[in-house]
Amino acid sequence: MPTANDQLRNARERTESPSHPGERLSRQELAELVNAHIWQQHRKTVEIDANYVGKLERGVIRWPDPLYREALRAILGSSNDAALGFSNRRRAVVKLADVDRKQFLRTAALGVSSLALAPVAALLEGAEPTPVPARIGQTEIEQIHTAARVFAGWDHTYGGGLAREAVIAQLRFSAGLLEADCPARLRGALHSAVGYLGHTCAFMAFDAYAHDDARRAFRFALACAEQAQDWHLRAKILSSMARQAIWVGQPDEGLTLTEHALVRADRLTATERAMLHTAHARALAKMGRMRETLIAVGTADDQFARSTPANDPSWMAYYDAAQHAGDTGHALFDLAVHGRSPAEATARLSAAVAGHTAAFARSRAISQIKLSSLTMATGDPREAAAIGTAALDAAGTIRSRRAADDLRELARIGTRHQTVPEVGALRHRITSLLLAS
Fold this sequence. Notes:
Blueprint: H1 6-14, H2 27-42, H3 50-58, H4 66-76, H5 96-108, H6 110-117, H7 120-124, H8 138-158, H9 164-176, H10 184-207, H11 211-228, H12 231-247, H13 251-261, H14 270-286, H15 290-305, H16 321-336, H17 343-355, H18 361-378, H19 381-395, H20 401-413, H21 421-436
């Protein structure tokens, strides 16, 4: 009797289903992913099914075709065949003398190999922490601002997944500066700078779905803004807190946060008011309040028409015409998929895709994915597939859990058109990308 390949089965069961988040990858889904991977990488058509995967897991087949092994390694995140329980019995006999010789060579090279295999963390133990300056001046405040701008730029371009640990470390150090000696005239500016960095850290955590970390950092940043009596930073932080609440399915909380930010709207710039009314619209749309959503979008448009970028704080530079079109388009998307004409949402999302520069690659990709989903739900599925394919081309370097969830939504909507070849190819490619990332 063959010996079951528990390593392969365990690897499959550890992998999340792309179609049913939170559930295990099924044998049939794994087979489809293998077929898609081999086609995408080698333009070779294969048609393995759940029955074949079952034979692999039961140990009936111990050494599958090289292309199958390659695909399984990529999909299941394995670095080698042995980790998936695959072995070539024809090469299993190894002379003891060869083993002894190899062991000798490893022992002789102990100095080099032990260094190469040493955990990176151990090499960094005892690293000297950066001392907090005894006195804080304008130079240190500017350095905090610069760090926040750099990390925010990284976040806009690549998403919050890769640099989050670095910004957390920078925030810890910068928060320590609040305890240092600082002239009274600069104390507010110091709190604002640290609050700005805290917001950047929080939003990156939100994008990476570290939601509890994001909430803590947002609260810290908000406390800094209120200590500094910085109404502009306060508005920005509350807007982002609202966006997180809406994203995690709490639009009522998002509505409260935006209204809290608009309490003294007279102290804000027109661009900031547009940003907040847009968040207001997105919360209302999620709650199905169509008429109020349209009023909020109209109010946001009126405020944005009065925008004077020269009056805005530096962190509002992102909120240009493309951002406004994308954010209002997202609100109208929720109305369109529930029966309202999709024309306005389509126009706004298209404007966002066309207007976002390379520096805002994540925003462009998210709007493009949303446009594809809207077209898939209400229009031509082949056109939707073309838009989605372009979005995937752009999303390859982005590490954003929000973008990944939008891709899952697109794949689900595409299910109704899965017999259309272009849609089927797009869904396979989405599945492969999500598993690879």
